[in-house]
Amino acid sequence: MFSEDQWIDWVDRLAQDDYTIIDDFISESLYQDIRAFLRRQQEEEEFAKAGIGTMGDYQIKTSVRGDFVYWLDTKRDQELTPFFELAQEMIATLNRYCYLSLSGSEFHLAYYPPGAFYHRHLDQFRERNNRLISVVLYLNEGWQPGDGGELKIFRPDGNDVLCEPLARRCILFKSDVVEHEVLLTHTDRYSLTGWLLYQPASLGYLLA
Question: How far apart are CA 167 and CA 144, in angstroms?
């Protein structure tokens, strides 16, 4: 869907800085399709309270995170096939240029109501460490400064990065390296969030 030069530029930034921010990552039509799908899941009350941890350590802790999630399935959620195809393009490109041996992915829709946040963390687990690249695609219509919900990326040199959750903006970052948090949101905040995996997902619905 993108030129080789575009991908090489994004991959170079990811390799150098551990993250890259890409604006207008999806078309307006795909953005609207994902938004419509998300609204239907909300109306049908398909979102569930998100937790932290994995397997026996899984627990709901609103003091740590306050979002709700809907885990995606490629077979069930065929309305989102164009996005799943884009995810496969990401996997193929990163394998080609970064030799990562990615072989799967897992994604969910995330909803942060006003007053929600997610404290500083890594997208990795001791019991399951196959998440290599985190992907966040924002779905926020008309986000304005002051709405909150920015993604804060913590940098080793102290020059932390604040990323505004603008519609169609995508962030890629190394799951086991980049500590980050979602700041307090003052309005509804939506994203399609997931991970590119060293091994296929099997327990995604149990994981943060």
Answer: 11
**CB atoms < 10 A from the CB of 192, how many?**
25
| Pairing mode, strands 170-174 and 151-153 | unpaired
Q: Which residues pair with 104 in a beta bridge?
A: 197
Sheet holding 189-197, edge to edge: 19-22, 170-174, 131-138, 189-197, 104-112, 68-71, 48-49
> How far is the CA of 41 from the CAs of 37, 47, 57, 58, in angstroms?
6, 7, 27, 24
> Within a 10 A sphere around the Cβ of 6, how many other Cβ atoms?
12
The token pair at 59 is 């627990």
HSE of 8, CA atoms in CB hemisphere, 13 A: 3
- Are β-strands 118-121 and 180-182 bridged in parallel, bridged antiparallel, or unpaired? antiparallel
pLDDT digits (tens, 9 = 90+) for 152-187: 999 999 999 999 999 999 999 999 999 999 999 999
**Which has the closest alpha carbon to 152: 122, 179, 192?**
179
Task: Give the separation between CA 84 and CA 105, rounded to whole angstroms.
Answer: 9
Residues 138/169, Cβ–Cβ less than 8 Å: yes
CA distances from 110 to 12, 38, 62, 67 (A): 28, 9, 15, 7
Unique residue bearing structure tokens 């921010």: 21
Q: Please state, in angstroms and rounded to a whole number, the distance separating the CA atoms of residues 82 and 29.
A: 11
What is the pTM (predicted TM-score) of this model? 0.88
